[in-house]
Amino acid sequence: MAGEGVVVGMSGGIDSSAAASMLSEQGYRVIGVTLRFYCYARPEATSRPCCSAALLRRARQLCARLGIEHHVIDAEAEFHETVVRNFIDEYRAGRTPNPCIVCNEKVKFPVLARIADWLGCERIATGHYARLVKDARGKVFLAAASDEKKDQSYFLYRVPVNILNRTIFPLGDMSKETVKRGAAKGGYRHEGQRESQDVCFVPDGNVKKFLRGELGCAAGDVLDRAGNLLGKHEGVHLYTIGQRKGLGIAGGAPLYVSEIDSRRNRIVLAAKEDVFHAGALCGSLKLRSSDLEATLKARIRYRRPLADIKGIERGDSLLAVRFLQSQWAVTPGQSLVLYEGDAVMGGGIIEKALTDT
Predict the structure, then answer these.
(1) Which residue, 18, 88, 156, 252, is the most exposed by fewest CB within 10 angstroms?
(2) Which of 151, 167, 120, 133 lies closest to 5, judged by CA?
(3) Rg (CA), the chain
(4) What whole-number distance in Å separates Cα of residue 211 and Cα of residue 215?
(5) Alpha helix segments (H runs only) across the chain
(6) Would you say the CATH fold of 276-354 matches that of 217-270?
(7) Cα–Cα distance measured from residue 239 to residue 96, given in angstroms and rounded to the nearest whole number
């Protein structure tokens, strides 16, 4: 609604810049906010593809061109304690986390909402590729973006509903190419700019190097499913379910990580056909409905195709989802997100793969 105040989360990248420009053109009272998640003065800052000092300058410059306010808000301590610490702890436990999901739920969107309240703005907005839809009763649901290749609804399923209700996703019905063309017409130069990466706080994108620095090395056994010793590993935090490369096991048929046992400090390898799973047991649930039908579809990892569901069983705090066709490498720590058409019906964190049918 024209005249409404909206705080736009601005990284300085093309998507958030386009979102701010569009809302300004539509008559909103736009205020740009850049959340600082780490110190830009650190030497490694220049190697980051997103959230860098250079992109901060771009955000400021765009706001100046648009004639709107721009604020930089320090969220480093909250980000480190909530997102980075969870990332390290999950890998220590032999799980594979998704830090973007944690950040959106517990840091980025809540902080933007608090800033909006402080600045007297009714709305917040980001450059995510996602949409909001309403059911027949007017209830707001998160939904997949029109551009299936860029859809980011998977990362947003845990954003609190009271915050979603005041959020705008200006790019939800646009393709990336349309956004780029519009940005170019508006004078935004994106040549040479890399897409942001999932693990933005790992300077060079080398997650294993980062985890070695945080958790060191703890050698353990690499076994096959029969319990035969195949070799040694340097730490369970350096592996993920379905991994084939970098296992250090030579000869024979290809083997994949099928189990990570942090308690006994061991990795189990198996043939490819043994890393398909019949279902997933999920915890830490965030569901929008108590009536979950088998007609829903599930995404078990970002960019994985939606999987048809054979059955859903819900307990007090856990959700067992069984697939119509077995899915590759169901991974503890990742999220399973449920969709009814394009609408997100919630999901949960995968606790274990289910092998029974």
Answers:
(1) 252
(2) 120
(3) 22
(4) 6
(5) 14-25, 53-66, 76-79, 85-92, 99-103, 109-119, 153-156, 161-164, 176-185, 207-215
(6) no
(7) 8
Instruction: Encode pLDDT of 38-71 as tens digits.
Output: 765 555 554 555 556 788 888 999 899 999 999 9
Q: How far apart are CA 340 and CA 292, in angstroms?
A: 10
Catalytic residue set: 103, 200
> What is the rounded distance in angstroms from the CA atom of residue 178 to the CA atom of residue 169?
15
Task: Note the CATH number of domain 217-270.
Answer: 2.30.30
Residues 14-34 have a mean pLDDT of: 94
**Cβ(229)–Cβ(223) under 8 Å?**
yes
Distance between CA atoms of residues 172 and 15, nearest Å = 11
Q: Is the pTM value of this prediction over 0.85?
A: yes
- Residue 193: pLDDT above 90? no
Look at strands 5-9 and 29-36 and give their pairing.
parallel
Q: How far apart are CA 330 and CA 282, in angstroms?
A: 11
Q: Measuring CA to CA, which residue among 247, 274, 259, 261 is closest to residue 328?
A: 274
Architecture of domain 276-354: Beta Barrel (2.40)
Assigned CATH for 5-185? 3.40.50.620
- As a whole-number percent, the residues of the chain with pLDDT over 90 amount to 76
CA distance 137 to 132: 14
- Residue at 340: amino acid letter: E
CA distance 20 to 123: 13
